[in-house]
Amino acid sequence: MSGHRIYRTSFASVYPLYVAKAERKGRSKAEVDAIICWITGYSAEALVEKIADLTDFEGFFAQAPAMNPARLQITGSVCGVKVQEVQEPLMREIRYLDKLIDELAKGRPMDKILRTPA
């Protein structure tokens, strides 16, 4: 795989940044974990294992048990880039996750973040 350096970065090295971003805004680690599990299909236990194994982003998404089809409803920008327009599939998955963490930090309700039908 061609690759951006984030692909070979361990998920464990970025995970605390996701949690810190959420906690700075009064949200919780449990909510971050719920988002990650929702988008990837990992169980809470499997997520802990992936973090402990220092799995890189490429492996983290490649080994995800069941990518949630509702993630395709995620739109908007992360770092000035529209997530739905990212061409590289792995980078798009990373941006989807970034976008959901951003929504959490901005105070969006979990049912909206997880694209729960009304």
What separation lies between the terminal Cα atoms? 39 Å
How many extended strands? 2
Spans of at least 5 consecutive residues whose pLDDT stays below 50 are none
Mean pLDDT across all residues, rounded?
94
- Structural class, by secondary structure, is mainly alpha
Q: Helix count?
A: 6
Helix content: 40-55%
Largest sheet: 2 strands, antiparallel
Widest beta sheet: strand line-up: 1-2
Strand content: under 5%
Could you spell the SSE succession in H and E letters? HHHHEEHH
Overall geometric form: globular
Radius of gyration: 13 Å
Task: Outline the structure in words.
The protein is mainly alpha-helical and 118 residues long. Helices cover 53% and strands 3% of the residues. It has 6 helices and 2 strands; from the N terminus they run ααααββαα. The chain has helices at 11-24, 29-40, 44-52, 57-62, 89-105, 110-113, and strands at residues 77-78, 81-82. Strands 1-2 form a two-stranded antiparallel ribbon. Strand 1 (77-78) and strand 2 form a beta hairpin. It is globular, with a radius of gyration of 13 Å. The N and C termini lie far apart (39 Å). The model has no long low-confidence stretch (mean pLDDT 94).
List keywords for this structure.
118 residues, mainly alpha, two-stranded antiparallel sheet, globular
Blueprint of the fold:
Layout: H1 11-24, H2 29-40, H3 44-52, H4 57-62, E1 77-78, E2 81-82, H5 89-105, H6 110-113
Helix pairs in contact: 1-5, 2-5
